[in-house]
Amino acid sequence: ELVILRGNGQGERKSFERVYDYDVYNDLGDPDRSADLKRPVLGGKDHRFPRRCRTGRGRTKTDSSSEKRSSSVYVPRDESFSEVKQLTFSAKAVYSVLHAVVPSLETAIIDADLGFPYFTAIDSLFNEGVNLPPLKNQNTQFLRTLLPRLLKALSDSEENVLRFETPETMDRDKFFWFRDAEFGRQTLAGLNPYSIQLITEWPLKSKLDPKIYGPPESAITTEMIQREIGGLMSVKEAIKQKKLFILDYHDLLLPFVSKVREIKGTTLYGSRTVFFLTPDETLRPLAIELTRPPIDGKPQWKEVRMPCWDATGIWLWRLAKAHVLAHDSGYHQLVSHWLRTHCAAEPYIIATNRQLSVVHPIYRLLHPHFRYTMEINALAREALINGGGIIESSFSPGKYSMELSSAAYDLQWQFNLEALPADLINRGMAVEDPTAPHGLKLTIEDYPFANDGLVLWDSIKEWVSDYVNHYYPNPRLVESDQELQAWWTEIRTVGHGDKKDEPWWPVLKTPKDLIEIITTIAWVTSGHHAAVNFGQYSYTGYFPNRPTIARTNMPTEEPSEESWANFLRKPEGVLLECFPTQIQATRMMAVMDILSNHSSDEEYLGDTVESAWVENPHIKGAFERFKGRLMKLEGIIDERNANKNLLNRNGAGIVPYELLKPFSPPGVTGKGVPYSISI
């Protein structure tokens, strides 16, 4: 049995096999199709890539004439989608969008570099839609049934029309994306609530090598911030009272700027955005700093834009904001989403199957949290993050997207910080307080993601505690459980082997240690993933709110007389040129719609009980209590969304924060927390 699960290191993977191994994840791209698509094999600090971002390949099979590769990413048989999930949604829907609808879009929109001429042209995507040519080799009626939200037939025509649903954000407030208040609100209650952090040191300063990247001092000065908040307090006092926050993509992005700018149709800066916490608990943007390192013999260039009241300054602020939003979109997709959930979970899945028996209680506890993840990751490796794929062609880092994800893994990823409370404390968004709910005092009290997330975290932890304490009543049983110890050792030293010597790995000696480890894994696959996935269409469907790419430099960066005159004459056109092209935007909108969707057989946290849990009265009772806590959380979230004092989740045109609401009907609902990363 173990040989079947672990493999013997020989031969080609077959679709019916059950081998769980790490070596099938090697290079990105498809060098067989084009050498330009080859990406380096992933490594750790000695290379530029961490293992967990690998794109899977089948083993090679050599005969006397040639070497052949398998046509798709190998997935162990037991990890494949169920027949029901295949028929109702999952692979077929995603595959159809990626392999039928997207190519048709690319045919319909002939000029790949064509942007939107007016904002009304963007609006037409939700009204008239895009006429698609015939979908090659596809059962059109089947596709319309499968993708009813996307493919809509005109009543008097046989044409296929890709007409997008109006996202809830835009439906409630057409100009929501324009407001600075919404820009700040979405850092706490939007699609990427994992980046905002407290400013604890002033002045701001880069940690990068100044010999390579230029002067490390930020161009955001005390005087600038003081001018914005002068009537309230000094900068020193604002730091002391924990009133200044930052989106900091400066040091992560700056090393990529030079090479990204060599790619046609995209650009990049390092960026910092500073916010001020107002008395009503909302975040007010104060300043955006964009930095270009020394490049082509030119010195470092940096600029600070601030909200202002003259026409030129207002448009420059909007353009700076577009760049920051593209940075945040890229970080969300490549780090908060792909790296920290999809990728990081794979070692847990593989080690669980290699080291724990299927009757081991921890295997049975974790099993629902791993369902379909390797299958959905394989699909992503084939068509989303592959060389020349949708991510590389739609996000600012281009072909360096996975390298950026890898750099973030090297610089930022720590298992102990994947626990929600530890993550909040690490970003300065909370401090330990035994007297406060959940043992934490939030720095921003109206932080919807953290407020709801901590209730969910505690619910999961209580369920895991009941389960673990039942099977390990004696603390010594954990340390003497050879399967369990082998499992944790493999996760640390093989699955995340690039970081095997890091001092922050938790030890596994007691039930308390095991509870914290299991709760962290369960949180990552459920709450964390739900928070960054199921709101994608709501917040990116109208792409000016979160453009995935900024295609042009700021008009103030070494402008020619002609380009500056063009900006002054028609600034709206310059902003539209900066936004994604028509094909980039519509392609991502189609993909985000399907990736935000719950299937009809979705298995929600606490809703579906495993048969092994029912057999044990103690575990069954613990599960029923867990389910009751999750149902109570539904009511708590409804009450919070109705509270007029919570301005980050209630107000005119504001979309209620429901991403961590445990249960949901099928479809694009912006709520629902499945057990596992299955989309």
UniProtKB/TrEMBL annotation:
Record SUPFAM superfamilies: Lipoxigenase
Protein's cellular compartments: Plastid, Chloroplast
Segments for region (Disordered): 29-72
Main localization of the protein described in the UniProt heading: plastid
Keyword Cytoplasm: no
Record keywords: Chloroplast, Dioxygenase, Fatty acid biosynthesis, Fatty acid metabolism, Iron, Lipid biosynthesis, Lipid metabolism, Metal-binding, Oxidoreductase, Oxylipin biosynthesis, Plastid, Transit peptide
Record's GO cellular component terms: chloroplast
Entry's family note: Belongs to the lipoxygenase family.
Name used for this protein in its record: Lipoxygenase
